[in-house]
Every structure is written in C-alpha cells, then in structure tokens.
Write a structure and sequence with these properties.
Elements lengths: L2 H14 L3 H21 L5 H21 L5 H17 L6 H15 L9 H12 L5 H12 L1
Helix pairs in contact: 1-2, 2-3, 2-4, 3-4, 5-6, 5-7, 6-7
Length: 148
C-alpha cells in the first residue's frame, strides 16, 4: 500500500469517527500528494511521497514557530497537524547508522584522515545514499566531527 493510499484510508476513518481536525490535516496531505502525482502524470515513488510529507512537516513547523504566542488557535492547529503528519513521515536513520555510511564513503574514497578540504567530495558521495533517510543538518554535523 502506498502512502497516498494509507493517507486516504486514514482520512476515511477520520470522517467516520467525526474527527474534524485529523480529517483536515489528512485532506491537506492527500491533496499535496495527489497534486504532485498529477503534475508528474505518473504514480509517485515512495521517495517522492516521503519528500512531500517532509515538506509538509517543514511548512507546518515554520507556521508553528512564526505564530504569535497569543494565537493559541494557530499553535494548537499546527501541533495537531504535526502529530498527524509525523505518522506518515519516514523513519530517520540513527547517528550510528549514518556514521556507518560515512565510514563506508570514507573507505570508498580512500580517506583515512579526512581534511576539511575533502568535505565536498565526501558530501557528494554521501548525500545520495542518505537522502530522505536522514536530516541533512545531522549528516553535515557528523561529517564535520570527522573532519576535525
């Protein structure tokens, strides 16, 4: 079952349970997924679905962070939406898993003691392997630790 189908199934269940807030969050996510599939004119891959979900999470987080403190309605709505979106978000790699991939990349590049100048080559080889599976800032931080 694709994530689009899972979101649609959950949206129907939310409608049956008359859970208005959950249904609204799922409707927005489903419309984003379907719009991308329509633009592509083909079914979405799992990676593309995950990218859309992560984009929605990022936008909702930005809304939450920029909401004025006295706007409790916006804050609550954003928090509820984040809870729903995170149910469908891909699970991220742990730091240990990322470090294992970094070790593998360093071995492939033949770098025993990487220097800051090697960062570009490392990241170029590393990022396609962890794209959608790890937060870019976390990966960057772990690579920077290795370079010092």
């Amino acid at each position: 079952m694709t994530k689009t189908e899972a979101v649609q199934k959950e949206m129907i269940a939310a409608m049956k349970h008359k859970d208005k807030e959950r249904k609204e969050s799922l409707t927005l996510l489903l419309s984003a997924l379907k719009a991308k599939a329509k633009d592509k004119q083909a079914p979405l891959t799992e990676e593309e679905e995950n990218a859309i979900i992560m984009k929605e999470i990022k936008q909702t987080t930005e809304t939450l962070e920029s909401a004025p403190a006295d706007r409790e309605d916006i804050i609550k709505q954003s928090q509820d939406r984040l809870t729903v979106l995170r149910e469908f978000a891909p699970s991220f790699m742990s730091e240990d898993e990322i470090n294992a991939v970094i070790d593998q990349v360093l071995a492939e590049l033949g770098l025993d003691a990487p220097k800051p100048l090697d960062k570009g080559a490392i990241m170029k080889k590393l990022m396609p392997q962890v794209k959608g599976k790890a937060e870019g800032s976390v990966v960057n931080g772990l690579v920077m630790k290795r370079l010092q």
